[in-house]
Amino acid sequence: MKKAVSLILLITLTACSKKESGDIPFNAFVFSVDAMRQNFSLKINNSDTVYLQDRDISTGEFRNFYTLVEKPLRDTLVAIASRINFAEYGSVYNDENLMDGVGIKLYSKRGRVENSVYWYGKVPSDELGAAADKLYTLKGQMHFKPYHNNIDCGNLDEIRLPPWPKPTDIQNKNRKA
Predict the structure, then answer these.
(1) Which among 31, 68, 103, 128 is least surrounded, fewest beta carbons within 10 Å?
(2) Residue 141 CB partners (closer than 8 Å, separation 6+)
């Protein structure tokens, strides 16, 4: 009896620890964009669900969405995210002379280890530029549905988050100066 229980336990543990071919090298990967007319984060995790958090600049609202992706698209997203070697980059590249550019942040988390690279202005490398372009293009091809739960987009320190001042507030501030 003891041998049978041990055998069952061994089989169960082996089956549970077997890696699936779809395993990815991170728990979460987030692609965030902060621009004049758009501000969003696209999140990929260990499932076939991709999340989108859209932050409306004019109203300051956060809207959350999700979509289920087929394996080929999921594999493409994972491949793009997996190719980024965060150790090759600093964490922030900021063009102080630029006033109306696009800020992009790539964020990855595995366990307790977080890595990110943010740039505003000049892209630090062709690799990062290509990854951001491809993720942006793929986002446009996905069909998202409303999602009524919160989405953890990780560390968004460099990304502007709502609420932003209303245009009339900015105009009034400029008049006082």
Answers:
(1) 68
(2) none
